[in-house]
Amino acid sequence: MVLDPIPCPTCNGTDVVQPSKKVQPSKKTIAIQKQPSRNTITPEKLTDVMFRAEQTDAKITRSETLEVGRVFLFTNSVGPANQPIEAALVLIQNLVAERLRAEGFTVLEVPRGLELAEAIAWINQRAVQGDVALSIQTDAFFNPDARGASAFYIVGNRERQQQAQRLLQQLVRDVAGLANRGARPDTETALGYLTFTRQVRIPSIVLTVGFKTSPSDRALILRNPQEVAQGIVNGLAVWSRALSALARVYSPVNVSVNGLVNDQQGIIVNGNAYIPVNSIAQLKVNLAKIPNARRINYRNTTYIRAIDLRGADVFVGWIPTARTVVLGTAPRLALDKIEQIIGRGYLSRKALKALLKKVNPQVLEQFPEIVELYLEEAAIEGVNPDIAFAQALLETNFFRFSGNIQPSQNNFGALRSVGGLEAASFPSARLGVRAHIQQLKTYASLEPLAQEVVTPRFRFVIRGSAPRVRLLSGRYSADPMYGERILAIVRQLYQSAGLL
User: Fold this and answer.
1) Which of these, 339, 346, 331, 347, lies nearest to 487 by C-alpha position?
2) Strand ranges across the sheet with 149-153
3) Which residue, among 231, 321, 326, has the nearest Cα to 33 in the 3D structure?
4) What is the CATH number of domain 336-496?
5) 203 and 243 in contact (C-beta within 8 Å)?
6) From CA 232, how far away is CA 9, in angstroms rounded?
7) Is 131 helix (H, G, I), strand (E, B) or coil?
């Protein structure tokens, strides 16, 4: 699984563990600020965001080198008399948004149903320098012979005129049979101006993809929404990248490769660490193993997203005090060992407590022996404590208990009562942990429990039905991704400890 990217230095709620090696600057490399006696490596945030990020990244089908940017999209209603055209415009906007996101852009779609003034206000509240806005519309005229696409820009803006021309040229190139009516100032419209091009506070263009009153244009729009969308995507990408490259300045970070600080720095983009591709040569990374790794081009340098390097067996961490991304070749732990519920664990008490101190230090005040309880109870039943602890982190939201279960219930595994309608409660933290461990063993093994049964629904479980974590999906939880969510946290813990 691809996890959430390395956070920016101001991000909170990240994990901190001891690095496997100290980072030693070489005489041939640049110096970084003095390290504290207790070096720490901070990996990604361990939250549900990483699962959403993974699902989004899974849609990427190819690796691109591009400037990241933000694009606002707006499609105005064309009225009930033209419902097929309106539906086609909505589909075109959806396709444009989907494909731009796959290219690495951030797309903000104006909510449907807003009036023009409300849409402009919505954009202006969110827009920043380097963003662009596009309104996708159709034109109309009493003469059905009028046809073709136009791009309208604010009068007197030579730069915007050129951008409109490029956008329009790309559209008509990709849509066979669509006439080019040219890039035109908004003074050539019926009202003599366009509110969208004048009141939106970032560079904006109104693109008309044809005349809804023209039989030929109407047919093109209804029959070829894919081609229309792709033409818009190609034109928008060129426009947005150009503005983004000029407007955006990204924060630099140091890069440590196998213990040595590189003389080339990385950058932080939207909370993600990106590393110059040529700075990782000494890792001998096989980039063919990560064809979907996100790349960007910034100031004539190609960068690769650091977290994606884990797919090529690279250890990735973060030292906040030195603003340094740590990269290194890490020993591999067999994947089949990760997923087996019955077996030994690999994380120490110290590593698990370091995690809790970083993500939720209050838990050690409320449950001061929670780590020891999981290690002890898991050892008694032969359950992998790493898996059990990761599942507890998932079910309790890192022991914040933000769901229906309260801390006083000592229920760390989302266990249900005998009736199955309410969450179970336990008189002590130890018994709550024991019940959780027993429930896992019940699913994973046919072996008898070593201690008296305290898990409420023991007799309702098919023994040995889920020896591996992925098999808990649809059994322990109805969530089809449940096992993957647990494994994501397990891998996160192992990677931060340098085991993967």
Assistant:
1) 339
2) 106-109, 70-75, 132-139, 204-211, 149-153, 180-185
3) 321
4) 1.10.530.10
5) yes
6) 36
7) coil
* The residue type at 243: L
Report the candidate in 375, 369, 463, 349 with the shortest Cα–Cα distance to residue 455.
463
The token pair at 176 is 């066979």
For 67, 72, 240, the CA distances from 105, given in Å and listed in that order, are: 8, 11, 9
Task: Return the closest-CA partner of residue 181 out of 144, 157, 154, 152.
Answer: 152
- Residue by residue, DSSP assigns 403-433 as SS--GGG--SS--B-TTSSSB---SSHHHHH
Minimal CA–CA distance to 388: which of 442, 428, 427? 442
Which amino acid would we find at residue 319? I
How far, rounded to the nearest angstrom, does the alpha carbon of residue 323 sit from its chain's CA centroid? Answer: 22
Nearest-CA neighbor of 149 among 134, 127, 132, 171? Answer: 171
- The count of other CB atoms within 10 Å of the CB of residue 288 is 7
Nearest to 436, CA basis, from 408, 457, 411: 411
Range(s) of the chain covered by CATH 3.40.630.40: 69-247
Output the tens digit of pLDDT for each of the chain's 500 residues: 222 233 333 232 223 333 333 334 433 333 333 333 333 333 332 222 222 223 333 222 233 333 446 889 999 765 554 688 989 999 999 999 999 888 778 899 999 889 999 999 999 999 877 788 999 999 999 999 999 999 999 999 998 999 999 899 999 999 999 999 999 999 999 889 999 999 999 999 999 999 999 999 999 999 999 999 999 998 887 776 665 554 467 889 999 887 778 888 999 987 789 999 888 877 877 888 888 888 877 777 888 999 888 888 788 888 888 889 988 775 556 556 678 999 988 888 888 988 888 889 999 999 999 999 999 999 999 999 999 999 999 999 999 998 889 999 999 999 999 876 789 999 999 999 999 999 999 999 999 999 999 999 899 999 999 999 999 999 999 999 999 999 999 988 887 666 65
Count of H helices and E strands in the chain? 14, 15
Annotate 141-191 with DSSP letters as a single string. Answer: -SSTT---EEEEE-TT-HHHHHHHHHHHHHHHHHSTT--EEEEEEGGGSTT
CA angle (88, 89, 90) in 5-degree steps: 90
CATH 1.10.530.10-classified regions of the chain: 336-496
Sole residue written with tokens 């991304």: 325
CATH homologous superfamily for 69-247? Answer: Zn-dependent exopeptidases (3.40.630.40)
379 and 385 in contact (C-beta within 8 Å)?
yes
First-residue to last-residue Cα distance in the chain: 13
The torsion defined by the Cα of 109, 11, 26 and 332, in degrees rounded to 10, comes to -80
